[in-house]
Amino acid sequence: RAKEKGKNNFQIYTHALNAKALERLALENSLRRALEYKEFVVHYQPKVDTESEQVIGMEALVRWQHPKWGLVPPQKFIPLAEETGLIVPIGEWVLHTACTHTKALHNMGLKPLTVAVNLSAVQFELQNLTKMVSKVLAETGLDPQYLELEITESVAMQNVEHTLNMIRDLKAMGIKFAIDDFGTGYSSLSQLSNFSVHKLKIDRSFVSKINGEKDNSIIPSTVLALGKSLDLSIVAEGVESQEQVDFLKENNCDEMQGFFFGKPMPIENFKQLYSTDLNIDISKK
Ligand code: C2E
Ligand code: MG
Ligand code: MG
Ligand code: MG
Known about the structure:
Layout: H1 2-36, E1 40-49, E2 55-66, E3 70-72, H2 74-84, H3 87-107, E4 114-118, H4 121-125, H5 129-140, E5 147-152, H6 153-158, H7 160-172, E6 176-182, H8 189-195, E7 199-202, H9 204-207, H10 218-229, E8 233-237, H11 242-250, E9 255-257, H12 267-284
Parallel strand pairs: 2-4, 4-5, 5-6, 6-7, 7-8, 8-9
Antiparallel strand pairs: 1-2, 1-9, 2-3
Helix pairs in contact: 1-2, 3-5
The chain binds ligand C2E and magnesium ion (3 copies).
Domain EAL: 24-278
Protein name: Stage 0 sporulation protein A homolog
């Protein structure tokens, strides 16, 4: 009897496992084909200078335009793309697309914007990452000083020696480097100063605490002061309210990004919305 029961359990178990495995396999297959069928799109979210509130750059954010599922957000497919290694070709495509779009904006004769592109842990571990990046820059003709690469704080901390080498190599190419989602990992101050990155992006969870009440802003202001003490440029992400803007101005944050200034959008919309803003700057030159 016990043997029979055990057998049944096993069947139920494999059945459940199969359903999950099949679902995953289906997702993996469509993800694999998505590149071929050009189903990925890059949206751009504006970044503004805190003092002038002028658009100075944008962050490239990938989406999957699935024929049946609609616009799939990155958090729904990046983990599987990382597990399967598909993030490597997807990431290269995103970088190529972002550099092409940015170069096209520069060619319009507007004030040159910077573009920030996210790198996943899997890409960051690749030995030939610098080669890939310089190939894309050569192919698209984008001046490296307008490219910013973002890695999250936890990725930077995974292998500190490797991170130091990568930052050194990419900086030698003239590319900027940012630590994303700052404050959510466990970097020590000394490690952070060793990294010699250009920017810290304060995680949205800290920015969302700013609501005009002093008690709630102790952590955000401490993170800002910390970045400043390391002589880094600070970007606040997830800025949604006027109160947060006021606070960030008072606390000398360098750049702001969030729904308050604009949601991620297709390049055509970005061009339309910000060409007027950028034209103003041109006439000032
Ligand atoms: P992230 O790099 O920290 O990007 C910021 C995320 O916060 C974006 O979500 C953006 O839409 C969202 N956000 C910005 N401002 C606000 C705001 O004011 N309020 C709220 N509620 N959200 C805001 P998204 O586009 O869904 O991307 C999520 C994450 O997926 C990104 O976080 C990044 O880690 C990853 N990701 C996106 N594109 C790529 C990519 O091309 N490659 C890799 N490896 N990861 C990517
Ligand atoms: Mg980012
Ligand atoms: Mg971020
Ligand atoms: Mg984030």
